[in-house]
Input
Amino acid sequence: RAKKSAPFGLCHISEDGFKEFDRYLDIKSKLEQAIESDELSIVLQPQVTHDGTVSSFEALVRWYSKELGPVSPGEFIPIAEESYAICEIGDIVLRKTLNVMSNFVKAGLNTTIAINISARQIVMPDFINSLLSRVNQFGIPPHRLMLELTETALVVDIELVKETMLELAKFGFRFSIDDFGTGYSSLAYLKVLPISELKIDKYFVDDIGKDFDGKAAQIVDAILEMAKALNVTCIAEGVETVEQLNYLKGKGCERFQGYYFSRPEPEAYWAELKQNPTLP
Ligand code: C2E
Ligand code: MG
Ligand code: MG
Ligand code: MG
Output
């Protein structure tokens, strides 16, 4: 670092660097207010089976800031993860999801909902109890919730995460490994965890039919084989084309999620449905 610094110890920061840092500070401070003033909402993206039946949804957080406009979770979640804010956001998303779920149940929809759980959330000492008290509060059976964890979240504190997952699994909560194939978990880890599903990352799905050497397709094949070995099901995220869908179907992938079927939409969009819809 010393080599690059300017005279008098001043670091050289480019104009872009300043802008980025400003944006970072902006988001960090306004996020606190957003949590207080209920600016966060959720949208739901369907997950479909082989015949296009919607079997579940993934809840994705949205932030329409009064001052900043829409801010994507890709931008603010990593910032929230630096502090306790991610736990507050996690609880907000959980409450909104359970509320949607109880409305769906009333409307006669038989679905489960997946929510994203950050590494920092799952290692909180009160995580199990807060989850249990929320599902009790809304009267939702735990098996209707799929908790999505990334491989990175698993390996932060593998022993603690394992204990927590095993305890939650006893109550019926289920687990999906999100963005599978991009992290660092090993088969040895995965084997001892109560996992129901691997979620193939969009990164690999994107390249199906596009890469000339067929490497992406081979990786997808390998992930599907791994799922078989672990006796868990597979879902592919980011499915955008019928070619991708057909390839994945042909290789035995059980479920699919992506713009090909539907973008994430607010509850109101799905609310009129009286039975599980079929897409596209
Ligand atoms: P993720 O969990 O892997 O979610 C999938 C992302 O891909 C979502 O972006 C979704 O809108 C997008 N997507 C789905 N299908 C397609 C497709 O066919 N094409 C393309 N181009 N994109 C597709 P989103 O909503 O921006 O979320 C980004 C990430 O932010 C999520 O990745 C997740 O890691 C995180 N995130 C979102 N909501 C929450 C939350 O409530 N809690 C936590 N901890 N993280 C969240
Ligand atoms: Mg996810
Ligand atoms: Mg994902
Ligand atoms: Mg992803």
In short: Confidence is low (pLDDT under 50) at residues 1-6. The beta strands are 40-48, 54-65, 69-71, 112-116, 145-150, 174-180, 197-200, 233-236, 255-256. The longest strand covers residues 54-65.
